[in-house]
Amino acid sequence: MIGLTQPEVSVWSERVTVALGMNPGLFSGPGTNTYLVGTGPRRILIDTGQGRPEYPLVLARALERAGASGLQEILLTHAHVDHVGGLADVQAHFGPLRASKLVVHGAPTLPEITAISDGAVIETEGATLRAIFTPGHAPDHLCYALEEESAVFSGDNVLGVGTTVIPIEGGDLGLYLASLRRLLAEPPGRIYPAHGPCVADGHAKLREYLAHRQQREDQILAALGSSPEAVPEIVRRVYTDVPAVLHAAAAHSVTAHLVKLEREGRARRAGGVAPLADRWAAA
Ligand SMILES: [Zn+2]
What we know:
Elements: E1 9-13, E2 16-20, E3 33-37, E4 42-46, H1 55-66, E5 70-75, H2 81-84, H3 87-94, E6 99-101, E7 114-115, E8 121-124, E9 127-133, E10 142-146, E11 151-155, H4 173-184, E12 191-193, H5 202-223, E13 229-230, H6 231-238, H7 247-263, E14 267-270, E15 279-282
Parallel strand pairs: 4-5, 5-6, 6-7, 11-12
Antiparallel strand pairs: 1-2, 2-3, 3-4, 8-9, 9-10, 10-11, 13-15, 14-15
This protein binds zinc ion (ZN).
The site of zinc ion (ZN) has 5 residues, from loops.
């Protein structure tokens, strides 16, 4: 997502307006997309950005652009900092709004959160959202279906550009692939990602993601030898199509694949002092 730009505020449909989190970076692209959803005077906000001081002003401009006067409530996709870091600022500027997310063991806890779970329906004028439990990138990840558009707010599960990182801490590739398949069972339509541009054909993107992971898995399996090797060495051989600056992140993805393959009896590890220091071989 290097070099990708996006306006601070964009209107992507009659009921979806984007306010950019103003936190550009190597992995966040132009920044986190936070979404105003609905058609009435008070909108639902999905995610709150990272906590950049200029974000509340951008959000106020987005509300004005959308023709709304305030927020109804806040929904969070997961507790990574670039999604929840702006929560306190938003509540300070727009009132003590209810903020809801999935609460699970193993995910960071946030103060004053209303717990919602898989299948929860949240309504506002002009929009009906339904929570879809989609762990793998994070253990507490929810996507939100937008029933009126057969669309999905995908959080970090599907991005506008590039692929999702499966972090060693809290990530699980097996669960992630199951979550992608679960999203494929939703009606085809747009995907509104947490980073990057809107995806017009959500089903095509999901199939592309699943094929990409399968291809990486095949490459990693082919790269494993009979004697154990360190992850960076495997990364160097598999990620020939990716700039070296991204190899540290790729090490997380490769480790996620190896952990999955180990679980399936197809890879074995010679222990290191930390997860990334493990050495891996074919089983
Ligand atoms: Zn995330």
